Amino acid sequence: MRKAVSILLLCSTLFALSACGTGGAEESAGGGLKDTQEALSEESEISENIAKTESYTGSNILIAYFTWADNTNVEDKDAAVQSALSHYDSVGDSADYDGVDATTSASVLPPGNTAQMAEWIWQRAGGDLFSITVTEPYFSDYDECLDRAADEKAENARPELVNHIDNMDDYDVVFLGFPNWWYTAPMAVFSFIEEYDLSGKTVVPFCARGTGGLAASVRDITTALPDSAEVLEPIGVYRADITSAETAINEWLDNLGFVVAETNSESVKERKLRMIVDGQKISITLYDTPAANALYDMLPLDLNFEDFNGIEKISYLSQELPTEGEPDGCDPAVGDLCLYAPWGNFSIFYQDFQYSDSLIMLGHIDSGMDVISEMEEDFRVTLERVD
Ligand SMILES: Cc1cc2nc3c(=O)[nH]c(=O)nc-3n(C[C@H](O)[C@H](O)[C@H](O)COP(=O)(O)O)c2cc1C
Question: May I ask the CATH class of domain 7-263?
Answer without folding.
Answer: alpha beta
